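for the writeup, i need someone to sanity check this before i put it in the appendix. the sequnce is what the collaborator sent (i think, or maybe the updated version? ugh). structure was predicted straight from it, no edits. if anything looks off just tell me and ill rerun, i have time this weekend
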Amino acid sequence: MTTQELAMEGEKQLEETIEAAFQIISAMNDELCNPSLWSTSATPSSAATTTGSNGSALVSADAAAIDGTSHHSESAGGGGGGGSGNSVLDEASLRYKNSVTSLRAVLAAIPNSQKAKASEMQNGLGSPESEDEIEKLEEQALSLRMEIAKKNVHVKELIDKLRELIADISTWQSPCSV
């Protein structure tokens, strides 16, 4: 592959990575906005509490949403695994991991492509136009790397905010001592 083709593939993989990250955040938001997780009625199955990692008491349904395990009541049909939202999150996470892996492979292939192009130029096959093209593609690759770094920082900030939101919600859901 030429450096230009690699750059176009890198841009495509970057877009897929961003889309998958957005899907992850949307799935987390959907899970947090699910009213069944924040039930206000106390039933025997949801009245049991557990202590979370931050020391606050959580209703078992809330703990299930946070730790990813399923706690289904007997009246809900008995069997089954996690909810459909969890599979959306898992699917988005898998897409994100795959696209990041592909993006890294493309970025790793760019220097090899440039070395091949440089050896062609040393053998008299290159031209001043191709040197300009190489320089332009190097700048584009650098720009893509910088954009990835910015997007990763943004995703990390969103995940940190989500963790803070979960901690706040856990605090609000804790039983109050009278």
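The two ends are 69 Å apart (CA to CA). The CA atoms of residues 14 and 147 lie 9 Å apart.
thx in advance!!
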